[in-house]
Write a structure and sequence with these properties.
By secondary structure, this protein is of the alpha+beta class. Helices cover about 20% and strands about 20% of the residues. Strands 4, 5, 7 and 8 form a four-stranded antiparallel beta sheet that branches. Strands 1-10-11 form a three-stranded antiparallel beta sheet. A hairpin with a 6-residue loop joins strand 10 (about 260-265) and strand 11. Helix 3 (about 100-125) runs antiparallel to helix 4 and helix 5 runs antiparallel to helix 6 (about 240-250).
């Protein structure tokens, strides 16, 4: 789950309560909005035809503030929750000064990462046209619970679901709902697991049915950029090399940019902590060392403008232009031999 530098842009506060219009050269899905809302004067037309053939995801009109209307899923009392799920004021681990045994830490991080990877793989297996993102969330929730673990996003700063699902022009932190996936969609599923005091975080963008070439290339570029960033890691390497490597790699793909607004993050006992990982060029002086655990999770956006629009729910970020975004993520551990991915699946399960 991405740490967000993103803040609500002033322009979003000035937007009309009507849903932005969409060029009739693109197909439209609006999560409950009526077509009458879109038949107005010609100004403010949002033309996404240059980005491919896909459905825009737009909020309901009138907008709903916050997420208090969404009922969170139930987690059995026998499963250990993270501190923030017990008390909203408890945002960090109560043992921040404990020196962890590196071998035990590694085993704990790998265990959490394995469960997260399994849940993500199962989510990917059910993705097809007609499946709702709420159904994906429910499968992720059940998979994690069945492994006696806790879905980290649930109740984190009030987030009401067990994973994030971001479709098409949703750049990050989409809240699962009853919108069926459509043929031609792309959808990111972002899963984090809390097991025995450790968090493991991973995500992947999946193709739904027949996705156009631009969409497929966006997803491919995102996966490759992630792996390029991971390959740059190792003990003694400056963290800025991750951003430099990803930014350089993405130049191989015309028509996509890395968003600077979403960061990877340190992870372990805490869901989000230092170091903060930029996926673009930066001047960080911090250096990787053995025992560091962090996520790399670039968000790539079509076009030349990566700006986002934060919805009134306080979580969902849409692209300003209507362009699609894709994200891929792994949790990485720095070892004496280099960098190990903590969130690769166990192929025997």
């Amino acid at each position: 789950m991405t740490f967000r530098l993103f803040r609500l842009r002033p322009s979003a506060l000035l937007r009309p309560r009507k849903i932005p219009k969409v060029s009739n050269r693109a197909r439209l899905i609006t999560s409950g909005a009526s077509i009458d809302d879109l038949v107005e004067e010609d100004d403010g037309l949002l033309d996404i035809s240059a980005f491919g053939n896909y459905n825009l995801v737009l909020p309901e009109d009138p907008y709903r503030e916050g997420v208090s209307h969404i009922v969170p899923a139930v987690v059995p009392h026998s499963i250990e929750p993270p501190p923030y799920a017990i008390s909203i004021s408890e945002s960090v681990d109560p043992r921040p000064n404990v020196v962890e045994d590196l071998d035990m830490k590694h085993l704990g991080m790998r265990h959490a990462g394995l469960i997260a990877a399994l849940a993500l793989r199962k989510a990917g297996q059910m993705i097809q046209p007609g499946v709702t993102t709420k159904a994906i969330n429910d499968l992720v929730h059940d998979t994690i619970i069945n492994h006696r673990a806790y879905p980290s996003p649930l109740l984190y700063k009030g987030f009401p679901m067990s994973c994030c699902t971001s479709v098409n022009n949703v750049l990050a932190h989409g809240i699962p709902d009853e919108r069926p996936l459509e043929d031609g969609d792309i959808v990111n599923v972002d899963v984090t697991v809390y097991k025995d005091g450790w968090h493991g975080d991973t995500s992947k963008t999946f193709l739904v049915g027949n996705v156009d070439q631009q969409g497929r290339e966006l997803v491919q570029a995102t996966e490759e950029a992630l792996m390029a960033g991971i390959a740059a890691c190792g003990p003694g390497v400056p963290f800025r090399e991750i951003g430099r490597t990803i930014a350089t790699y993405v130049q191989n793909y015309a028509g996509v940019l890395v968003s600077p607004d979403f960061l990877g993050h340190g992870i372990g006992r805490n869901f989000h902590q230092e170091p903060w990982i930029s996926h673009t060029e930066n001047d960080s002086d911090a250096v990787m060392k053995v025992g560091d655990y962090f996520t790399i999770e670039p968000v790539l956006v079509q076009g030349t403008d990566t700006s986002g629009w934060l919805l009134p729910d306080g979580w969902t970020v849409l692209s300003e232009t209507g362009a699609r975004g894709a994200q891929a993520e792994h949790t990485i551990g720095i070892t004496e031999n280099g960098a190990e991915i903590m969130t690769t699946p166990d192929t025997s399960t």
